[in-house]
Specification:
The protein has 713 residues and is mostly beta strands. It is built from 4 helices and 37 strands. The longest helix has 7 residues. The radius of gyration is 25 Å and the shape is globular.
Amino acid sequence: MGLKKTGNTRLMGGVALWVLAFNCGAAAQDAVADAAPATPVAGQDQPVSQLQQIVVSAGVPKVAIDTPQAVTVLDQEAIDDLQPRSIGDVFQEIPGVTPIGSNSILGESINIRGIGEALSGDETRIIMQVDGVNKFFEQYRMGSFFSDPELYKQIEVLRGPASSTLYGAGAMGGVITFTTKDASDFLDPGDLIGGRLKTSWDSNGNGWLGSAIVAAEPVKNLELLGALNYRQSQDITDGQGNEVPDTDFSSINGLIKARYTFGENEDQSVFASYQNWSSDEDDQNYDQIAWGPDFGDVDRTVTDQTAIVGYANGFSGNDLLDVKAQFSWSDTRVEQKNQDQICAQYAPAPAPPTCYYPFGFNSEYSYETWQGKADNVATFQLGEDWMAYVTTGIDGQYQERRNPRDFGTNVRSGSGSHPEGETVNVGGYAQAELVWNDRITLIPGMRIDYSNVSVGSYVDGSGNTINLNEEKSAVGYSPKLAAMIKMSEWLGVFGSVAHTERLPSLDEVFSNYVVNDLDKELSNNFEAGVTFSFDDLIMGGDAFRLKGTAFRNNVTNYYASYWNGSTVVTEIIPKARYEGLELEASYWTESIYGSLGASLIRGNNVSTGGYMNAVPADSAFLKIGYVYRPWNLDFGWKGDFYAAQDRVGADEQETAGYVLHNLYAAWKPTDGFMADSEVRFNVDNVFDKSYRNHLSEDEGAGRSFKLSFAKKF
């Protein structure tokens, strides 16, 4: 397997589709375990590939390989395997998904299939949800999502705009859903209390994590969970031993959850949760994306909070009702103090330079959002051979975005790049899943969204507050049709057609001190794919799974924001096109396993014939491992392969290709004093390779030794 540079510098020539793959997972849901053919060993985890994981975010729960959409599920085992330092690290093995921005935890955003730019407001192009709550933050030269991977037990990535039906108009890139840990994950039937203690260390940056989780069921059917995590790191170094600026941090995050189940058949529950993530650092670069010195340093406190209350009722005995409703509050807030002055000499000496605070000496940026949603799944038996599952729902949100504020100083406060304003979104949707003999699945769906954006005030170049009080309203439609056909026990084909309309965000309605009258972004996406499922392929008890997807996404009125060398500009591209191929495969036996993922993405400005910005390089990963059953020891190698990227926009730089080698091992004793514990050891970037990911603004991390220990009680 290797990199071959041709005229367009492509990867994939050395990657064979039939490479073996598997993600050796921890205990999965019963439906998944039943699907895996390998024979379980007493007291040990059953191997399950990512293509066999249950998808819960695409309608009725189904196995990933049987979903007529490109979707990847990371369960708790897959997340732990990676030993992630930040949220961006969890997407290393997902085709078509790339972290963008920087290695700073405050500078990360996400790109899916070439959609997602560090300097643009991708609020609805990629929808990110935590336990069903939309999360998004926009501030100039900052990332868009702040959290810690230790909070989550499952992450699902649904690629492409077909997800818009259930999650909101405009999700052209896709949807990422994060599910937090539950008390039931740490309690066996009859347990009063349980939990887990965990610590980890990372040599690159001398990073450290301490985590404590306590779960309890003090009375029957009342489940409680409390989790507290602390993570810190010094600046990491690249492959040449140089420090990567502003990658040091410390953060603390906590989660509390409660669920009470009741009813004659225990089919009802009420639940509530609250989580908080915060980081408080002095003398940070204002620019967390590109480390530019132009804006100086600042003392910055970032706090992200989410609170949820909800109710669920399965209506036992009534197939037409299965209801869930929740109300949530989300607040993401950045407080900044003591920003450096920027001085410029505008007149010949001896005139003194003009000095100012470019974004306010003391300032605050905040997104505060109230959301509500309710849905129902109705089940119908249509004759002897057809089943129908109809999901209907409504959701809405009210969001206040607030400007930097003057805390009593006489210096300039505020920013013209971050106007105050309110956004109201209300949507309704319906999706049917029609299944014939478990061989044919048809999924039609429709969503209608109403959006109202109200631009309030901003601060002009002289520091004066300007009140605009202008509103823009629009309606967006997101219809789709998807199909999955199992041609035989081992062959399946699928495809989908999806249309979505993205409504302009507040940042796009107001830009460069002007209120813009913008048309909607329109996306027409086409996907087609094939699946292969073989059991007992080479030997008894082995299994092979493969899913390949081809897509083409035609976008009209695409809003592209980028740095032109002197300022950020927003360009409206009349016609843009994204297309590509994605591949996921897995093979496993009782002991040997492997996994393969690959993506090839192209982005073209159809109007000019040029390339789109923020299109990732062709990439692939290959993982090969072995499980020594007597000791329950899992170890292996993973290679990350990236091609050079020379298909770049006018303001982008080309990047070279590179290969990273990584080693890992996990030991889960089942007997003795070490029972119910796990030890993990990873070596990332074994050969200390110097590289830069095409969508990152800084050098990648050099060699890192990672060690973690966790103990359940």
